[in-house]
Specification:
Blueprint lengths: L8 H30 L1 H26 L7 H10 L3 H4 L2 E5 L5 E6 L3 H8 L8 H15 L3 E7 L11 E6 L2
Antiparallel strand pairs: 1-2, 2-4, 3-4
Helix pairs in contact: 1-2, 2-6
Amino acid sequence: MKPFDTMTRDELLRALEMFAKNWLAHDGSWFLGAEERFGMETAIDLDARSWARFAAVEARRIMTTFNIPPGGGLPALEKALSLRLYSMVNAQRAEWSEDRQRLRFYMDECRVQQARQRKGLPPFPCKPVGTVEFETFAKTVDPHIVTTCLRCPPDAPEGRYCGWEFTLQP
């Protein structure tokens, strides 16, 4: 018997949150190691390459696990975004345009940026990595989805984190 077989729902949710935090800590540790060894520019390039691979894998696994059909458009993307590991550790929200032709997604809290702020560090310039990550994730859900960055550190107002807009290409 595995330890998780006997856990309560609350214990399983705490474990899930811990796994998500561990995943994010590993990502940050990996990045810092790459930055120390190769410098910021190369570390960002390597990080973007890694996220392109991971975002596709994460999207496919979410779609398979939760029966989200490929090519399901913006509703499928909204559901898939809500099931990412990020959702366990970062407050996030999705907003539809009135005509339901655009989906906007915002990180209202970002553990990475908040940790840097607590340490007195400047915002992490995550826009190049985030662009690759969110574009790849969205295109994996539906290849007709177009991703636009609305804001992303360092190009985000103080206290704000990334925001993305998704539309369907005709």
